[in-house]
């Protein structure tokens, strides 16, 4: 896994800890090595969308930057 993805996850976990939030491993969504323009080919993005179709299973979504979502 590229350093940038690991760095983003490490920083996101640290941010959560700083705010006393728990991080559920099953709700870590990543699409390493797939272009952000490939919306349909991103399994992590698809899992996030599925998780949010009903009641959200979490209160906060941590991203390094909004651009990381797409």
Overall description:
This protein is mostly helical and 70 residues long. The protein has one domain (3-69). It contains two helices and no strands. The longest helix has 16 residues, at 3-18.
Structural class of the helices, strands and pairings? mainly alpha
Contiguous helical run count: 2
Largest sheet: none
Flag low-confidence runs: none
Q: What is the 3D form?
A: globular
Portion of residues in beta strands equals under 5%
Radius of gyration: 12 Å
Structurally, the number of domains stands at 1
> Overall pLDDT, averaged?
84
- Distance between the first and last residues' Cα: 19 Å
What's the total number of strands? 0
Percent in helix: 25-40%
Order of helices and strands: HH
Quick overview:
The protein is 39% helix and 0% strand. It contains two helices and no strands.
Characteristic terms for this protein:
70 residues, mainly alpha, 2 helices, globular
Write the layout of secondary structure elements.
Layout: H1 3-18, H2 43-53
């Amino acid at each position: 896994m590229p350093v940038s993805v690991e760095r983003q996850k490490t920083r996101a976990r640290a941010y959560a800890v700083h705010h006393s939030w728990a991080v559920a491993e099953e709700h870590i969504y990543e699409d390493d090595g797939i272009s952000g323009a490939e919306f349909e080919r991103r399994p992590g993005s698809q899992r996030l969308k599925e998780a949010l179709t009903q009641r959200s299973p979490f209160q906060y979504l941590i991203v390094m930057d909004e651009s990381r979502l797409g």
